[in-house]
Amino acid sequence: MSTRYRKKPLAQFEQGTRIYAPSGGETRYRIVATDPGTGRRFSTKATGEAAARAKAHEIERRLAGATPVHAITDERSRTVRVLADRYVSDHLPNLSLRYRERQEYLLESWILPVVGDRPLTAWTPAESMAVLASVRNAGRSAALVQDVGATMRALVTHARRLRWLGPQSDDPMWMVSYSKRASVQGAGAVYVPRTALPTDDQCDALFLAMVANGEPTWALAMRLKHRTGVRWGELTALQADDVSFDRRTVRVARAVEQGRRSAPTIKGTKNHMTRTTIFPRSLSGDLRAHVDAVTAENGPTGLLFPGRRGGLMRRSTFQQIWIKAADAAGWPMTAPLTRSAGYGDGARGWRWTGSAKWSPHDLRHVAACWMLFDLRLDVAVVAAKLGHHDPAFTMSVYVAPRGDADEAAMAATEDW
């Protein structure tokens, strides 16, 4: 819609048709509606308010009696599962692979088993709460509860866009609370306390364990992640010419995307912007030697941390390295390290399973806390180094009152 029509409509009708008064030199009234079959908007114009209202009423009658291409004539057979199929086919194709797979997982694992066979018009807030209760009862995180709730809200929004739920329909998410709540006064709901992360000594033990396990390159990669805060996909997409030793910076210009059923590919960064981040002088020597070796073998665009066969490293392959090193470093394990027959002969033929208390992504949190509290960089600078879209998000994740907030505030007022 052009800028001159971005204002409150003169009139709005039950099927969503709206009338906008002329402005900006335009002499005709504009009537805007949405096709229930495709979800696309269309518009027409009329001279005079009376003619515009007549045209709007005509469109409303057509919309009320229309049978969209994808509509099901029997409302009782229009279930939440049918809505989910439309949501996946209409909304998800243009989004990232990992986001699509995440949404499909939330639908198939949590939402549809509870409400999938319910007629859409019979879906109630109590049933939505039952979905969230099933996630909580399974002992899953508050973040997953929020993701499931947000996906159900997206389903309801899509149903209204399709006119499968009308303006007068009951809202299946009415008064359903699913957002995370802060557990610390003054902290954000997504707050990650530094005390919940591995210490530098524990991280050093992990890196040494990787070296002892015959993975010095990945020990260096984790040391780099531990201070730069790059995401996993950004780390595995780094090239030799992305590292500048004059300024001790790493350019983050691309990332690896990998789905559960597809090979990894190169794409843009999460926010589609190039940024630089930092690393300490203590890392320069080992990193320079590695960059020089990669450049000599594969040129300046060679991958710094490739997979075993020279291609993009798979997350599942690295997970084997991670859990073995975490166990050897004495990290708390949430699932014991076990091995089963895999491929080939000898030690390479074993497949390792297990789960450590901390994941590779936690090293990104460690890096953020290092920048904020040890280097004392400004929050806006740290947000830029981490690739956050807003410094306020960085604040909400990492900053909260520490110690006795009242005592600290009182001490600050002594000389005033």
Describe this structure in words.
The chain has 416 residues and is an alpha+beta fold. Among the domains are: 3-65; 75-161, DNA polymerase, domain 1 (Orthogonal Bundle); 229-313, no CATH class. Helices cover 43% and strands 12% of the residues. It has 14 helices and eleven strands. It has helices spanning 49-65, 80-91, 97-115, 125-137, 142-161, 200-212, 216-228, 232-235, 284-298, 315-328, 360-374, 379-386, 391-398, 405-412, and strands at residues 11-12, 18-20, 29-34, 41-46, 243-244, 249-252, 255-257, 265-267, 275-278, 333-341, 350-356. The protein has a four-stranded antiparallel beta sheet with strand order 1-2-3-4. A three-stranded antiparallel beta sheet has the order 5-6-9. The protein has a two-stranded antiparallel sheet with strand order 7-8. A hairpin with a 6-residue loop joins strand 3 (29-34) and strand 4. The longest helix is centred in the middle third of the chain and has 20 residues, at 142-161. This is Tyrosine-type recombinase/integrase.
